[in-house]
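Subject: complex prediction, re-run

Hi both,

The earlier run crashed halfway through, so I resubmitted it with identical inputs.
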Amino acid sequence: DAGVIQSPRHEVTEMGQEVTLRCKPISGHDYLFWYRQTMMRGLELLIYFNNNVPIDDSGMPEDRFSAKMPNASFSTLKIQPSEPRDSAVYFCASKAATGTGSTDTQYFGPGTRLTVL
Amino acid sequence: AQSVTQPDIHITVSEGASLELRCNYSYGATPYLFWYVQSPGQGLQLLLKYFSGDTLVQGIKGFEAEFKRSQSSFNLRKPSVHWSDAAEYFCAVGAVFGNEKLTFGTGTRLTIIP
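This time it finished cleanly. Structure:
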């Protein structure tokens, strides 16, 4: 199993540009999570999907952020327009739905390091 | 709301010494508890998890953690650390029913000295 795949691994862009981060979850996993990690705020959940449907997006910071999951094997996190304060490492994670609640392990991708100049 | 506190931001331990990383949680019922490790430039890897049953949980890489309900704690331990254990360690708490969210602590950075 290739694990959770994220691309790009590094992204440097200028303020005001659109940024799209991509994630391929582990095959067969029903849940997909987007996290953001910064020194100031630690690891924050932005949004998660179940069977391609967004379930909780309360962590999405503002309207500049949007996430989609058009099918079970692909998700995007888009920032438009980007700002310097969006600089962070963005992680995608997936998990299977074999239990209830948070019983099953979330498997994390390697992350995308975003720098907005 | 659930929350996690990792009181130690940075810990330095000599190679071969024992290790204990502290984690305190806040949750209204029996929580699901996790420890993850993050090596530099990498994603998070699960070390161990507690759902129910035996309060002493064994994980990978020789780590263990003990759930103490009376102290709302889930401390991570290892009897003898190796240089390769240098990383950042995160404790997380999850809900038992109906919510897939994990809430992470701010992490403890572990440095190993020869």
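The interface with chain B takes residues 4, 31, 33, 42-43, 45, 48, 50, 55-56, 91, 93, 95, 100-103, 105-111 of chain A (CB under 8 Å).

- K.
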